[in-house]
């Protein structure tokens, strides 16, 4: 899985929207706290889901 794009969202809490391409070729969008500088386009990431939240991590 790799980051396709990322952008900072405007809100009171710093949040970033990532578009992630899965190994299957499907793309998903993940919004989570952080900054755009935490990840770069092309970074390989792990996507986790606990049933209620999906997160991106290196």
Explain what the structure shows.
It is a single chain. This protein is mainly beta. It starts with a strand and ends with a strand. It is built from no helices and 5 strands. It has strands spanning 2-9, 15-21, 27-33, 46-49, 54-57. It has one domain (2-57).
Please outline what is shown here.
This protein has 58 residues and is mainly beta.
List segments where confidence is low: pLDDT < 50 over at least 5 consecutive residues.
none
The total tally of domains equals: 1
**Derived structural class:** mainly beta
**How far apart lie the N and C ends?**
10 Å
- Main β-sheet description: 3 strands, antiparallel
Total DSSP helices: 0
Relative helix content = under 10%
Mean residue pLDDT = 89
**Major sheet strand order:** 1-2-3
Write the layout of secondary structure elements.
Blueprint: E1 2-9, E2 15-21, E3 27-33, E4 46-49, E5 54-57
Antiparallel strand pairs: 1-2, 2-3, 4-5
Give a quick set of tags describing it:
single chain; mainly beta; 3-stranded antiparallel sheet
């Amino acid at each position: 899985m790799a980051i396709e794009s990322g952008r900072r969202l405007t809100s009171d809490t710093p949040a970033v929207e990532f578009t992630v391409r899965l190994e299957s070729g499907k793309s998903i969008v993940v919004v989570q706290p952080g900054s755009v500088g935490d990840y770069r386009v092309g970074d390989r990431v792990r996507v986790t889901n606990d049933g209620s939240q999906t997160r991106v991590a290196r």
